[in-house]
Design a protein that fits this description.
The structure is a single chain. The chain has 633 residues and is α/β, with parallel strands linked by helices. It has 18 helices and 30 strands. Strands 1, 2, 3, 4, 5, 6, 7 and 8 form an eight-stranded mixed β-sheet that branches. Strands 9-10-15-18-19-20-21-22 form an eight-stranded parallel barrel, surrounded by five helices. Helix 2 (53-68) packs parallel to helix 3 and helix 4 (176-188) packs parallel to helix 6. The chain is globular. The structure holds acetamide (ACM). The site of acetamide has 4 residues, from loops.
Length: 633
C-alpha cells in the first residue's frame, strides 16, 4: 500500500513541469520575451568555447548549482550538442562592455550566454538562474522535475562599475562562513564590491601580526542583548567573551572566494574616530592615555548626539593626531592590510570624529601652532592627509567617508558620500572621484516600516525610497561618480537571519539603482519582481522583510480639535482594514479608504493589509498616543 502510494507520488513528480516567470533583478538593459520555452530535459549539457580557467570555473559553478538542486548536467567542449553554451567573444562586442553579456533562450535549440570577459559570463549565469524556477534555489528542489525556461533575448551591462554593499562586521562579529554566505547572496544581484567595515568602537576584526593586542584585547567585549546604545556599562567581573576576528589566512580565503565570484573586497579601518577597540588595546594612541580607563564598547552610551549636530564623546574613542606613535601604528596596520587585500582602495573611515578631547590637549595646540592649523577641522584634515600619504606609499588609493572633506581634502582622495549626496557633489565638483552611499536612500540598517512594527533603529527608510536612489546627481561629471553602495551597519543586527531581513528587499532596489539604466527602473514593475524573488528567497531559506505590505501612518489635528489618521501603502492593490476597539482586524473589518476620525476615547488602532482575500501585511497595533506623534507621510 505504502509503495503504491510512493510510486504514484514519484510519477506525479516525474510528470511535473515547472517554469519561472520572467522577473530579472536588476532589470537588464534590454529584455525581449519571445514565444515559447526551452525544455532542457533530464540531462543538461554545458559547453565552454575556451580553456580560460575563469570561464571553466563558471561552467563548473553552474553545474554544481544544478547538481545541488537535483538536475543532472555534464560539461563538454562541444557546443553542437550543448544545451547551455558559454561563449567568450574573440572580438569584443562594444555594446555589452566589460561586465555585460547577451543571453538567448531559444525553444528547441538551447541557451547561450555570450560575453567579452568572464565577468559577463558570470552575470549572464546569474540572469539565467533567475529564469529557472525558484526551486533551483533549494537543495534537491528540482529532482525528477521537467523544467521549462522562458524564451528571451537579453542584452545587458551595468550602469556603474562600483556596485557595493558594506557589511559591518565590527558591531557584531560574523564568521568567515557568514561572510561567504553574504557574498553568495550579493552576487545573485550583480553586486561586485564588498566593503568590510573591519574596525570600530565595538571590535577590531582583523589580525595585525605586528600589533597582537588589537585582536587579543580589541576583538572581545562583554556580550549584551537588547537595545544597543542603551546597555549598562560593563562591570569589571563580566566576561569579555563576545567577538572574534579574521586571521590572515581567513582573509586570503575570503579574498579568493570573492574574486572567484567577481567581487572585490575593500577593507575599512575606521580612524581617527570610532577607534575605541584600538585604544582599549593600545591606550597610548589616544590624546588622553591613562591606564585601564578604556574598554571595547559593549553598546553602552559613549557619545552624545544633540539635535544641533555638535556631537561629542563621553569617552575618548579617537586616535591622537598630535602623537607620532599614531602614525607608526597606522603604518603598521596598513602595511598588513595592503598586503592582504589586493583591491586598489583602502577605506580609512574618517567619519564622526569627536574632537572634544583633542581640544583640551596641549599637544594638539602645539601641533596647530607648528603646522599653522586654524581649527579642529584643519587638524582632522592634517591627520587624513598623513594617512593618505601612508596609503600612497603602500601603493593604495585612499577613500573615506565625506567628513574627509572637512578642513580640506587630500589630493587624489576618493569620497564616499553618506550624509546625503551633497558631500559627493562637492567632492566631484572639486575633481575628486566619488562613491554615493547616502543614508537617505542606501542605509539598510534603518527600519523598513513604522517603528511600532520594526526592531528599533533611530531612523527609517522604506523600500520605495531606496528604489529612488540615483547615484548620479545632475550637474556633476559622470566620469567622477564611480557608482553606489548600500551599507548594512550591525549595531542592532545580532544574527544572520536578521541580517537577511534587513538586506532584502531593499538590496534589490539598490541593485537596480547601480546596475540598471535609469529609464528601465519602474516601481510598478519592480514590485511584482520583488514578489517573484520573495519566492526565490523562500526556496533558498533566506529571510526577508515583508514591511512593504504594511501601511505608513500619519495623524493630524483638525480645527475642531479632533484627530484624524491617514494610512498609506507604498504598493498598489492592497486593502487596509482597521479597528479602534482593541480587537484584531481581518478583511471583514472596516476598510480604510480616506482619512478616519480617531474615536475620542480610543486607546489603540490596529491595522492589517490584504490582497485578493489573502493577508499580506502583519497586524500592527498602534497605541493612539504613539499615533499622534506620526507626522505627514
Ligand atoms: C557613517 O554612517 N557614520 C559613515
Amino acid at each position: 500500500m505504502i509503495s503504491k502510494f510512493l510510486s504514484a507520488f514519484v510519477m506525479i513528480l516525474f510528470g511535473q513541469n515547472i517554469s519561472a516567470q520572467v522577473a530579472i533583478i536588476p532589470e537588464p538593459v534590454s529584455l525581449v520575451s519571445k514565444a515559447g520555452q526551452f525544455k532542457p530535459g533530464n540531462q543538461i549539457n554545458i559547453s565552454v568555447n575556451t580553456n580560460n580557467a575563469d570561464a571553466q570555473r563558471i561552467a563548473g559553478m553552474l553545474q554544481r548549482k544544478l547538481a545541488n538542486t537535483g538536475l543532472n548536467s555534464s560539461l563538454s567542449a562541444d557546443a553542437g550538442t550543448a544545451t547551455i553554451r558559454l561563449l567568450l567573444n574573440k572580438v569584443p562586442d562594444q555594446q555589452i562592455q566589460k561586465e555585460g553579456y547577451q543571453l538567448k533562450v531559444i525553444p528547441k535549440q538551447g541557451i547561450s550566454i555570450t560575453a567579452n570577459e568572464t565577468a559577463g559570463l558570470f552575470y549572464g549565469m546569474q540572469t539565467l538562474l533567475q529564469l529557472f524556477p525558484a526551486q533551483v534555489e533549494t537543495e534537491n528542489g528540482l529532482k525528477n522535475t521537467q523544467i521549462s525556461i522562458p524564451a528571451v533575448e537579453i542584452n545587458d551591462h551595468p550602469r556603474f562599475g562600483w556596485r557595493g554593499l558594506m557589511f559591518d562586521v565590527s558591531r557584531h562579529f560574523f564568521t568567515k562562513q557568514e561572510v561567504k554566505d553574504f557574498i553568495d547572496q550579493m552576487v545573485k544581484y550583480k553586486y561586485n564590491l564588498l566593503h568590510l567595515h573591519l574596525t570600530d568602537d565595538e571590535g577590531w576584526r582583523l589580525e595585525i601580526k605586528s600589533l597582537p593586542k588589537l585582536t587579543s584585547v580589541g576583538a572581545w567585549r562583554v556580550n549584551k542583548t537588547g537595545n544597543f546604545g542603551t546597555f549598562s556599562v560593563p562591570e569589571d567581573n563580566e566576561p569579555k567573551d563576545y567577538g572574534g576576528f579574521y586571521t590572515h589566512e581567513d582573509i586570503r580565503e575570503l579574498v579568493q572566494y570573492a574574486k572567484d565570484r567577481f567581487v572585490n573586497i575593500m577593507p575599512e579601518v575606521d580612524i581617527p574616530g570610532h577607534s575605541l577597540a584600538a585604544i582599549a588595546s593600545y591606550p597610548e594612541l589616544s590624546c588622553t592615555p591613562g591606564a585601564d580607563q578604556y574598554r571595547v564598547r559593549s553598546g553602552e552610551k559613549i557619545m552624545e548626539w544633540p539635535p544641533n549636530g555638535h556631537f561629542y564623546g563621553l569617552v575618548d574613542n579617537t586616535l591622537c593626531p598630535a602623537n607620532e606613535k599614531v602614525y607608526d601604528f597606522i603604518d603598521k596596520v596598513f602595511s598588513e592590510v595592503a598586503q592582504l587585500f589586493p583591491f586598489e582602495y583602502i577605506h580609512m573611515g574618517g567619519d564622526e570624529t569627536a574632537r572634544n578631547f583633542w581640544e583640551k590637549t596641549p599637544a594638539i595646540k602645539d601641533l596647530m601652532q607648528r603646522e599653522n592649523l586654524k581649527n579642529l577641522d584643519e587638524v582632522q584634515s592634517y591627520f587624513v592627509k598623513r594617512v593618505a600619504k601612508i596609503l600612497q606609499n603602500k601603493g593604495k588609493k585612499m577613500i573615506g567617508w565625506d567628513e574627509i572633506l572637512q578642513g580640506g581634502l587630500a589630493p587624489d582622495a576618493t569620497v564616499m558620500s553618506w550624509r546625503g549626496m551633497k558631500g559627493g557633489i562637492e567632492a566631484a565638483k572639486a575633481g575628486h572621484e566619488v562613491v554615493m552611499s547616502p543614508s537617505t536612500f542606501a542605509y539598510l540598517d534603518y527600519m523598513q516600516g513604522d517603528k511600532i512594527a520594526e526592531p528599533p533603529v533611530y531612523a527609517s527608510l522604506r523600500l520605495n525610497k531606496s528604489y529612488q536612489f540615483d547615484p548620479l546627481p545632475e550637474g556633476v561629471d559622470p566620469k567622477l561618480i564611480k557608482g553606489g553602495q548600500a551599507n548594512v551597519w550591525t549595531e542592532q543586527i545580532y544574527n544572520t537571519r536578521h541580517l537577511q531581513y534587513m538586506l532584502w528587499p531593499r538590496g534589490f532596489a539598490i541593485a537596480e539603482s547601480v546596475w540598471s539604466p535609469k529609464e528601465k527602473k519602474q516601481w510598478d514593475q519592480f514590485i511584482p519582481k520583488v514578489e517573484a524573488h520573495f519566492n526565490r528567497l523562500d526556496a533558498a531559506g533566506i529571510k526577508y522583510s515583508r514591511s512593504m505590505y504594511d501601511p505608513a501612518f500619519a495623524a493630524t489635528k483638525t480645527t475642531g480639535n479632533q484627530w484624524m489618521v491617514t494610512l498609506n501603502t507604498e504598493i498598489n492593490g492592497l486593502t487596509i482594514h482597521y479597528s479602534f476597539d482593541n480587537s484584531f482586524p481581518d478583511q471583514y473589518y472596516p476598510r480604510y479608504t480616506a482619512p478616519v476620525t480617531i474615536p475620542k476615547d480610543a486607546k489603540m488602532l490596529r491595522v492589517v493589509t490584504y490582497r485578493n482575500g489573502v493577508q499580506v501585511g502583519k497586524i500592527i497595533s498602534m497605541p493612539i498616543e504613539d499615533l499622534k506623534t506620526r507626522k505627514a507621510i
